[in-house]
Amino acid sequence: MPRVALVVDVVRMEERMLLDVLRSRAETETVDAGSMPLEVGSNSFDAAVIRPISMYRAAYAAASFEAARVFTVNRSETIMLAGDKMLTYARLAAARVPTPRSFYASSPQAALKAAEKLGYPVVIKAPLGSWGRLVSRVDNPVELEQLARLRQGLPCSQTRSMIVQEYLDTGGSDIRCIVMAGSLLGCIRRIAGSGEWRSNVALGARTEAYNADPALEDLVLRAAAAVKGFFVSIDVFETRERGYLVNEVNGVPEFKGFYRATGINPAVRLAEALIEELKR
Amino acid sequence: MPRVALVVDVVRMEERMLLDVLRSRAETETVDAGSMPLEVGSNSFDAAVIRPISMYRAAYAAASFEAARVFTVNRSETIMLAGDKMLTYARLAAARVPTPRSFYASSPQAALKAAEKLGYPVVIKAPLGSWGRLVSRVDNPVELEQLARLRQGLPCSQTRSMIVQEYLDTGGSDIRCIVMAGSLLGCIRRIAGSGEWRSNVALGARTEAYNADPALEDLVLRAAAAVKGFFVSIDVFETRERGYLVNEVNGVPEFKGFYRATGINPAVRLAEALIEELKR
Amino acid sequence: MPRVALVVDVVRMEERMLLDVLRSRAETETVDAGSMPLEVGSNSFDAAVIRPISMYRAAYAAASFEAARVFTVNRSETIMLAGDKMLTYARLAAARVPTPRSFYASSPQAALKAAEKLGYPVVIKAPLGSWGRLVSRVDNPVELEQLARLRQGLPCSQTRSMIVQEYLDTGGSDIRCIVMAGSLLGCIRRIAGSGEWRSNVALGARTEAYNADPALEDLVLRAAAAVKGFFVSIDVFETRERGYLVNEVNGVPEFKGFYRATGINPAVRLAEALIEELKR
Amino acid sequence: MPRVALVVDVVRMEERMLLDVLRSRAETETVDAGSMPLEVGSNSFDAAVIRPISMYRAAYAAASFEAARVFTVNRSETIMLAGDKMLTYARLAAARVPTPRSFYASSPQAALKAAEKLGYPVVIKAPLGSWGRLVSRVDNPVELEQLARLRQGLPCSQTRSMIVQEYLDTGGSDIRCIVMAGSLLGCIRRIAGSGEWRSNVALGARTEAYNADPALEDLVLRAAAAVKGFFVSIDVFETRERGYLVNEVNGVPEFKGFYRATGINPAVRLAEALIEELKR
């Protein structure tokens, strides 16, 4: 029986589901990355499922295991690439996966120039940050300059840096697909809460199952491959003129809402795919 | 003639040297990443030499160019891996490159456990940070607990996280080698200022040329390959019991001191290697 | 019946006790300073009892009420003075209330000079911060320099600034007295948890009732007056050579432990003193 | 001859002017608050002129001297009150000095409620911060909510807290008066740069001398008294409906522009007033 580490900080419903299904298929041990030190390159596991909520805790935990050539889901590279929207966009673009048109701006001055090229309204995002925080829609240069100046006071480079992006009218909905081991597991549609343009569940969006057409399936598989993701969720905008665009990839995906809407249990599929992988 | 972007924020002596030598070999343009927005995936350069001092500015600038499949030195992946000591150690360990024994600790509690396993004194480092800042030597648990608690107040994950590492008595000296396009360019030795255990030039260390033996050459070439570095500097400790250990890799290397001590001009070598690369 | 606002953010046992006793004596309304805006200088209360845990929230709430000449316990001035140890020490010293010998240092360099004058070990404190966080005992210049350098990375002036203070061996105990409306309510003794030199209850200290002698009573009444406190708790060290020294004043005092150890209910006494005050 | 300390961190033109005039009237010593520790309550000066740019450095330096009952200009209390706009407004309101209508809001939710009461546009300010940084004009709830959410990421309470204030159309100009030892020294008018609504000289405003009428003189003298300022500058808005309103008080005033526009040298006047004060 393979030895699997379930690496966590906060234990959510997802982690409890994972523990349940992993236990029946592998010798599973929960590792609390908050209180336990992780030696770089020394441990006795065959695989590690990486679930800390904190992005860096997840990436560093994964890296510690990879140092000992343990198979990780996801690997630290995927967690770092998906966790940073700037790096995600760059990898997707290099892989010819369409995304919203985006600029990197490191100062208010640069942001104003980028917005001028895009035309208003624009979206300002930080490379880092979940659940729609640090995402703003800006309608004119005065507002942009105020916001960009204020952002200069944020303490960390990855939240202070700006992605200046075209604003896409998606009617307040987006599609989230889960890719596992190179296959599409399924998709859901998230419809924004009324009066809210961001379709984050944390901001009141509701969800429903969604059937992917071949174009969408092809897109998300290529997106997952671009960040070397074994188990990732991918957020997609559907636009009239340009079809599907990938907006975000998540390297430690939440899947409670996906499970509820589709009946597909990502925890079970992950356990199966992982055992399969370890047999190779 | 190839088109090369020299991407900068602050222009140091290194950047002036690079501009000089690049200009005679390529159509070179300086791009100020502080004031100019960089479009993700659209530009007209063949290559970009990435030189911002800010690590994230460097990585995001590189990523913007890579999105358009421009050749970058170094690529964003190298800048991110080398810029983060935790990720560096994990990659080196996975590639069987020896490093100081290290643990990742995300809390005072975890740090205390790691130090207990290593034995005191230990070194506490942040994954991010240059010039010896955020590196402490700690002699006992009381001191460690104080320091770790204080670090909890730092605002960014990458500086708040801790690498707990064995303390190595290197007699206050280390070796820095520069690797360019898979070859060793040369090495220097840095000898710490008196009363200072860290051999950072910024902290008063002096430098001299150093002849690499085959073991050292092999080590640093493998280290550069482990982080996919085209032009990197690699800091090495020489220890009595365990020979050479890689302590750090720099993805946007300073080379003023190296040039002064060895007479080898990395700017010229970089320009040559880059032109060679673009001919392929 | 007077109108009293009980201003809170988090409601602890203390705030529930206060609400209980205030309700029977005044028309009392709870004001949540976290979710409600407070107009500067306009409201219909006769008095406000200020209880937010966040120091600035407490001070700004008090100031908003004072702008309308509402009687506040404590007033914003007391909250600001007591909340900042540097300002506390200065006021106490000006009022000839003995305190530990202290220096203000705004850089590692200044801290090293201060420690040299005091002799090691020294205590390093931030002006702001509760429950023993950001308080360190330092044994030598190397350790101090490390700690001071690390503190430079803290993001706020009031936590980055340093008070360099003589280390006093108090046998791990201190005395906490509560002063109400110019009278001593009572004192408790806190004895540090084993292996811990700081006598914070949050760090495992236990408490017992303590009888104040006239010297202690005089001291704490003068300390309360020095910061214009109506209802404050005062932490006192007892030393062999120099007798009682005031170490800290709290402008939004917790009193759960005091009540348990002494049987004296500060909530009842506060309600009585407040009603008395409003009659004047 | 009295002994005067000129306490500085960065030495600007103002500090050089002060040093010049103080030297001819007193035994003057420059004290660098950045590199020197300041003992709380022990020194040999008769007075201290407090000039550090950093607000807390200024306040703590003043407090250190006051602890030894040294006369300070300004005293720490004035520096803290004037340095924090929330505390300034509260003191002014309590002293019946008219100010823009203002609310304290500690969350996006509270800010939205405050703006609803005021009507849009509103001004959002942080209690701390100079030169127009962290001051935003907001036109609608969507913009306010975005800005307020973003501000939650700022690391320090005093910059994260919000003052929600009525927007006053002042035609882009304001008046700055300097009060010294209870008398009006003079006023200047600052006219905002084109396309900029904030009249900060740092943001391109130009200045001219301005004759105060008795109403303005009365207002600024009462404002200075409200914060116990010995030498303060006071920013005033002139409005059609409500006449003069005090917008800000500065406890470590810059006066280069004032001197240039009026020919009155505040450094000379300060030296004279200080010597006068010490004779009492």
UniProtKB/TrEMBL annotation, chains A, B, C, D:
<dbReference type="GO" id="GO:0005524">
    <property type="term" value="F:ATP binding"/>
</dbReference>
<dbReference type="Pfam" id="PF08443">
    <property type="entry name" value="RimK"/>
</dbReference>
<dbReference type="InterPro" id="IPR004666">
    <property type="entry name" value="Rp_bS6_RimK/Lys_biosynth_LsyX"/>
</dbReference>
<dbReference type="Pfam" id="PF22626">
    <property type="entry name" value="LysX_preATP_grasp"/>
</dbReference>
<dbReference type="GO" id="GO:0005737">
    <property type="term" value="C:cytoplasm"/>
</dbReference>
<keyword id="KW-0067">ATP-binding</keyword>
<dbReference type="InterPro" id="IPR011761">
    <property type="entry name" value="ATP-grasp"/>
</dbReference>
<feature type="domain" description="ATP-grasp">
    <location>
        <begin position="89"/>
        <end position="275"/>
    </location>
</feature>
<dbReference type="InterPro" id="IPR013651">
    <property type="entry name" value="ATP-grasp_RimK-type"/>
</dbReference>
<keyword id="KW-0479">Metal-binding</keyword>
<dbReference type="GO" id="GO:0043774">
    <property type="term" value="F:coenzyme F420-2 alpha-glutamyl ligase activity"/>
</dbReference>
<dbReference type="InterPro" id="IPR054562">
    <property type="entry name" value="LysX/ArgX_preATP_grasp"/>
</dbReference>
<keyword id="KW-0547">Nucleotide-binding</keyword>
<dbReference type="InterPro" id="IPR016185">
    <property type="entry name" value="PreATP-grasp_dom_sf"/>
</dbReference>
<dbReference type="InterPro" id="IPR013815">
    <property type="entry name" value="ATP_grasp_subdomain_1"/>
</dbReference>
<protein>
    <recommendedName>
        <fullName>ATP-grasp domain-containing protein</fullName>
    </recommendedName>
</protein>
<dbReference type="GO" id="GO:0046872">
    <property type="term" value="F:metal ion binding"/>
</dbReference>
